[in-house]
Input
Amino acid sequence: MKKHPPDEQHTDTEMLKVEVNLDDTPGEWLGYVMDKLFEAGANDVYYTPIYMKKNRPAVLLQLLCNKKQFDQLKEILLAETTTLGIRYYPLTVFRMERQTRIVQTKWGEISVKEGLQNGEVIKASPEYEDCRKIAEKYQIPLKDVYSEIWRLV
Amino acid sequence: MKKHPPDEQHTDTEMLKVEVNLDDTPGEWLGYVMDKLFEAGANDVYYTPIYMKKNRPAVLLQLLCNKKQFDQLKEILLAETTTLGIRYYPLTVFRMERQTRIVQTKWGEISVKEGLQNGEVIKASPEYEDCRKIAEKYQIPLKDVYSEIWRLV
Amino acid sequence: MKKHPPDEQHTDTEMLKVEVNLDDTPGEWLGYVMDKLFEAGANDVYYTPIYMKKNRPAVLLQLLCNKKQFDQLKEILLAETTTLGIRYYPLTVFRMERQTRIVQTKWGEISVKEGLQNGEVIKASPEYEDCRKIAEKYQIPLKDVYSEIWRLV
Amino acid sequence: MKKHPPDEQHTDTEMLKVEVNLDDTPGEWLGYVMDKLFEAGANDVYYTPIYMKKNRPAVLLQLLCNKKQFDQLKEILLAETTTLGIRYYPLTVFRMERQTRIVQTKWGEISVKEGLQNGEVIKASPEYEDCRKIAEKYQIPLKDVYSEIWRLV
Amino acid sequence: MKKHPPDEQHTDTEMLKVEVNLDDTPGEWLGYVMDKLFEAGANDVYYTPIYMKKNRPAVLLQLLCNKKQFDQLKEILLAETTTLGIRYYPLTVFRMERQTRIVQTKWGEISVKEGLQNGEVIKASPEYEDCRKIAEKYQIPLKDVYSEIWRLV
Amino acid sequence: MKKHPPDEQHTDTEMLKVEVNLDDTPGEWLGYVMDKLFEAGANDVYYTPIYMKKNRPAVLLQLLCNKKQFDQLKEILLAETTTLGIRYYPLTVFRMERQTRIVQTKWGEISVKEGLQNGEVIKASPEYEDCRKIAEKYQIPLKDVYSEIWRLV
Output
């Protein structure tokens, strides 16, 4: 398999979606499970509310990962949730060319992730953690930090 | 307080909405809790998916009841869920004039609940349990039972 | 009751929230009902997914309106949905001082609704319909229209 | 590949499901994106509420399309949303035999889409747009238009 | 294909996920459909709230089944819902080694399903129906029945 | 107004529910807003997925607070979200008698919050943060920490 530098446009055919239905794991544990799965290298983890049999409000856990990570993430799911089964299927991921740019604001530097198409920047997302830290340090609304960056990019 | 016969149009000012947020009660128990609350006289019980702090998918339990039923329903919520607090507020309920009509179908009788306005029937709902029993007895789609009734009313 | 000019900061004590649980109205009708309720003057209408008894995925319709509009909106709910009952309770609404400003972009004028506190603009929302029309006329992403305005305000 | 007339029962093996998780695209834009995707030929587009990391309520956009449409729809997703990646996987679609029938009502003609199995009509859906127009023209509840058709089919 | 005894750890490559979007099937029917699909052998059935075009709150029905069951379940979906199309894709299911153990409580026997890894029990789920029956018979909270079992296993 | 010690059973009549509909605040900001509202003293904050006009997936923010906290929380909502209006209504909260007990486990001490009725403990919730820290320190599943406590209480 050819290896792509992570930032160039490419199509990744080595990804899996992994799913588990949970009707007897308390919500309290699920915040913890999400953190553990991210730490272990999941590309994304998210919850969807579902309705299961016998009037049970429940949760569908979905995660995206590289095939090579599956075994490790499976172990976490088995150890940390109540499920006895884990289902998965392959998917393809198209990823835009991307680059990180440092924007100088009046409060300091903020990273902005940019998406490029045909060499042109078509979208820009300020790094949330950078914005959050500035909002907290200067006691200003997070919204104002984002607004300032939108003015500058 | 004046008492209304249950089927006449009236405005009920003696109702409460009761709410509990649940992030550590497993979904499996919640189907059971719903049944218990209906048995004890709740007018309605329903679940809404919510997102609570620390990334917890959780459930908002809401129930509607008469003020006189509150104490009994509160006991069930305290006994059967993990909550330590229960919140509630009064609401007003407008109820249409309603009557039940028996419709004769090729498979037998089905009750239809009708809503009236100014003495005129403006809506008709076949009784779900009657339709379900016929669908199961005659091994026909539930949809076909409803269609037949819509043709007759 | 004192009348406020609509744009000044004020607290409105004449509002109601109206609610209906719907487990036998098809989703297809509900888009239509929403339009009718807005046309008749509802301040807001929105749907929440709920889980009702007997494993029924259902919908909670909520609307906000002035007390004077209640009767008319009630008629629509009774005529257009399958419900036989409508519940409601009063609420208070705090509304910020607001003003509309016209922003001149390279594609034409766009209205921007501004929220003020202590005489200072603290937030600005481009008018969606203005942005949509420009995006469609010039065949540019809606996102780019918003970005341009954020640069200008 | 053999081409099927669109109305005959067939199994389509050329379909894709395309997915994007969105935690920084405002809801306001997503109504617009849905319209653009339908205009460009998506078979279906729908949103699911999800919970992402860091306590973010977010939206999963899913769309169904023919493989040949993927490139065009991908361009719209990249241009109109904030995502940097798009995932997809093939699926198979079984489609019933279907036909359109014109039903004559007291208010005019309404198309009804019928589903057939073994040559027999087993379901019938009135065309929403036809029903909506009649409901608006004659100022009658949409529900009554559907009821009338159910009586006739 | 090699056949596994159902309780040993194994990876099942013969499963399908089947999906239907429903915007004109009333919620009332969907509880019934779920029961029918389970009776006919579906491994799991669950509903997810979705938002479809034209402001329609709708429901995504998903079911998991063995490929051999697909035809029978397809017939139920076509007969009992309003859909004209059914989509599906294969998935792989990893299943833990499991065993059932009978736990003796002060109220009688309760089955507990245990999940094993490397021969060691790493999770235990009391059988819901056993617990429910005891809770109802002895008029004790379901929560207390579970607590008692957690003390014993 | 009589003041209750916080741990005794009491009915609190000084609470408000505050609500905001958000269709143009990105999900990314909402995780931040939740933290700010908790820091400022909200009793609870939670998000519900809703569907608003023009096909917009949106979010209902709800918070519970004492009337005295309303002004401060209102300022945060106005500063950190895009809303121009905030609605609220009073509610009553019943709170069980509660006490905190320290449970000695093989890994160290864990607080358990207990709910009492007529002087008897009827429910017990281990403190999540205590359990999380032990799970991380000893690299054991969170589930096992809870199981151990359930065995001891």
Summary: Chain D has a mean pLDDT of 95. Residues 27-39 of chain D form the longest helix (13 residues). The helical segments of chain D are 27-39, 70-80, 128-138, 142-152. The domain at 12-94 of chain D is CATH 3.30.70.120 (Alpha-Beta Plaits).
